[in-house]
Every structure is written in structure tokens, then in C-alpha cells.
Amino acid sequence: MSTLAEFYTAGGIWMHPITVLSAVSWTIALERVYALFFRYSINGGAFVAQIQKLVMANNIDRAIKLCNATPSAVLPRVLKAALTRANKGEEEIANALEIATAECMRDITVRTAVLPTVANLATLAGLLGTIVGLIEAFSAVALAPPDMKSQLLTQSLAIGLNATAFGLLVAIPTLAFYVFLNSATKRLIDDLDVYALKIQYLLISRGRSGGTHITAA
């Protein structure tokens, strides 16, 4: 613990903004993990299979109630928009799906794109801290006795590099979080698009057949 405290103190005032950036990074990352894997996520295949059965049985009200059972998940929100317009025209169903999908995509992608910026700022803050530290180090060495210059320069360089090291320690995990969350976001959006198209096709088929006989999408 004392070693970490010495490392932090040696980095100077630039360690503080990097610490703030680290807190921002972890806050965004943890919130996005919760949102993408718990709040917005659902077993899409099983859910859509249930919706398909209800639509094929012409039980639209029951399908809407099923969507209402998980209102925070994005897939039920999108499908509900189409189901509430099941007796409308094809264009209105398509427009409802498009609007609902756009709204859900906004919720899915929000804040994730901030992580690379946080990583860059942490790296730049560390580099700036090192540069400022080196300037101060060379100024101090210039005024030091000749027999102390080498020792002071070595110590000052070690102190100055702490800020860069800390900045990288924040930036690298932040970028790793971004890659992980971006992949999860893309997978969720892809599933949303595929299942929305399936239900759209099913509702259009239902409308064309008058709601009497349709086949699964």
C-alpha cells in the first residue's frame, strides 16, 4: 500500500485528473455492462418464438401483453410497436418498427463511444504530466551541485514517468472495455434487426391473408 501511495504521490498533480478519468471510465463501463447484458437483453429466440405462435393464432392482444411483461428489454419494445399496429397497413407497421428500432439503438449505443475519448485523455494527461515533470527536473538539475546532478536527474525522470505509466494503466483497460462493449452492442443490434424483420414479415403475411392462415417467418 505504501508503494502505491508513493507511486501516486510521485506523479504530481497530474495523477488527480487521471484518477477522475479512471472513475468516469469504470462508471460508464459498469453501467453499460448492466444495461447490455441485463436491462436491455432477453432470450431473443425463445421470446420471438412465443410471439410468432401468438400472432399465428391471431392472438395479438396476448402478444402485446407478453411484450409488456419485460418493458425494459429492447426487443419487446420494438416488437410491441409493430404489434400495436398489426391491423394497420404494411407501411405503418414498417414505420413503427423503424422508429422503435431507432429509439432503442439510441439507448443501446449511448455513452459507449465516450470510452475511447476517456482513454485518449488519460494518455495525454499522463504525457503532459511527464513533460512538465521533465521541465522541472532539468531546471532543478541546472542549479544542483555537479556531483548531485546525475542522481537528481535519475530521480526526476522516474518521478516524471509515473504520470505516463498511470495514464496508460487507465487507458488500456478503458479501450479493452470499449472493444468488449462495442462487440456486445453490435450483437444486440443485429439480433434486434433480424427479429424485427421476422415479426414484420409475419404481420404483413397476416394482413394479406386476413388473419386467417399464415406460416411462420
- Basic shape: rod-shaped
| Topology pattern, helix = H, strand = E | HHHHHHHH
Q: Cα distance, first to last residue?
A: 60 Å
Radius of gyration: 28 Å
Q: Give me the secondary-structure category.
A: mainly alpha
Q: What is the number of E strands?
A: 0
Low confidence ranges: 212-217
Helix content: over 70%
Strand content: under 5%
Tally the helices.
8
Biggest beta sheet summary = none
Summarize model confidence as the mean pLDDT: 87
Describe this structure in words.
The chain is rod-shaped. It has 8 helices and no strands. Helix 6 packs antiparallel against helix 8. With 217 residues, the chain is mostly helical. Helices cover 82% and strands 0% of the residues. The model is unreliable at 212-217 (pLDDT under 50). The termini are far apart.
What's the quick description here?
The protein has 217 residues and is mainly α. It is 82% helix and 0% strand.
List keywords for this structure.
mainly alpha; rod-shaped; disordered C terminus
Secondary structure layout:
Blueprint: H1 2-10, H2 15-39, H3 44-56, H4 60-68, H5 74-83, H6 90-109, H7 114-142, H8 146-208
Helix pairs in contact: 2-7, 2-8, 3-4, 3-8, 4-5, 5-6, 5-8, 6-8, 7-8
